[in-house]
Amino acid sequence: MKAQKLPSGRFRTQVIVGKDANGKRISKSFTADTAFASEKMAMDYVSRYGAGQAIYRMTVAGAINQYIESRTNTVSPVTIQTYKMIRDTRLQAIMDRKITELSVPDVQLAINVDAARLSGKSISEAVSLLQAALTFQGIETNFKKRVTFPKSRQKKKLLPPPEIIIRTIKGTKYELACLLAMWLSLRISEIRGLQYGDISKDGKWLSIQRSIVYSNGVDHHNDFNKTEGSTRTVSLPKELYEMIMVQPHDSDTDPIVPHGYNCLYKGFRRLMAAQGYEMKFHDLRAVFATTLKGLQIPDDYVQHLGGWSNPTTMYKHYVQTLTSEEEKYQKQIDEYFSGALDTGRSPLP
């Protein structure tokens, strides 16, 4: 890279950052008052973002940036923001290392540094991004199986039984959203994405096919869910159907739950804190799973309802029926939560 003097007397250095759809080179210019300053700006950019950089010169930060760039418009904006957050806050000890010289001890050292402030899960996510970025450059690694992650320090949270939660939320504006999370195991983003048109004509099925993800103060409207298995159709209990339909609405595109993320998240936390429980909205899915475990509902059915796994989707369309076994499980679930809703007491012994 060599700076060129412009007619204005300033200096410009150009970096080839890629090619467009027609194969034409795309360049980025760095202009400064001196040749040195212009070239340094260009070199800093190349070092940080890996643009136009030969693989033997590319740093970890540069490789991750190229990977992020390659995923733009193919994954959600929230995922891109997460990648950038990981790039800027994790494994910082190796970001300036050349990828062709990166070793297992290097990665382990970076993990050890981060272990003082981050969970094993957070560090594992960073190593996964690192591996994906290196694979994108044609370098196959297996760091996740060759390094040691810190043990989880997360304490088991004591969650209240459903009847206490129902008694707490009953009659509040959070009731429907909380029941959708605890009874049907919907994520808060899925709940906020629900529309009246997602209910089948007979009122017996609810399709979860979009989400509204809140990130960095902005709502991101997605016509998809977190995973392929998250796009599902579940049985809609009569009680929830009636609660939904009694609300004023004008069209199929009206939201079933019109409240914002902070309204639901903070409001629910305040209600539960007043009862002496430190509980997040997402914990309602844990209550769902724990309750179904107590009802001895098979794991594969629980996983389908919660969208946690990706088996062959049982209900991709409204025109579906439950098998006799599934009808039995769903009846158990609905009877339990219906009883808890009516009496505020758990039918379980």
Structure, described:
- Mean pLDDT is 84; it is low at 309-322 and 345-349.
- The longest helix has 20 residues, at 324-343.
- The protein is mainly alpha-helical.
- Helix 1 (35-49) crosses helix 2 (60-71).
- A hairpin with a 2-residue loop joins strand 5 (211-215) and strand 6.
- The chain folds into three domains: 4-52, no CATH class; 61-146, DNA polymerase, domain 1, CATH 1.10.150; 162-343, Intergrase catalytic core (hpI Integrase, Chain A), CATH 1.10.443.10.
- The protein contains 14 helices and seven strands.
- The strands form three sheets. A three-stranded antiparallel β-sheet has the order 1-2-3. It has a two-stranded antiparallel ribbon with strand order 4-7.
Strand content: 5-15%
Give the helix tally.
14
Largest sheet: 3 strands, antiparallel
Strands, count = 7
Query: Structural class of the helices, strands and pairings?
Result: mainly alpha
Strand order of the largest sheet: 1-2-3
Categorize the overall geometry: elongated
CATH architectural category of the largest domain:
Orthogonal Bundle
CATH-defined topology of the largest domain: hpI Integrase, Chain A
What would CATH call the class of the largest domain?
Mainly Alpha
CATH superfamily of the largest domain: Intergrase catalytic core
The amount of helix comes to 40-55%
Question: What's the Cα radius of gyration?
Answer: 26 Å
Structural domain tally: 3
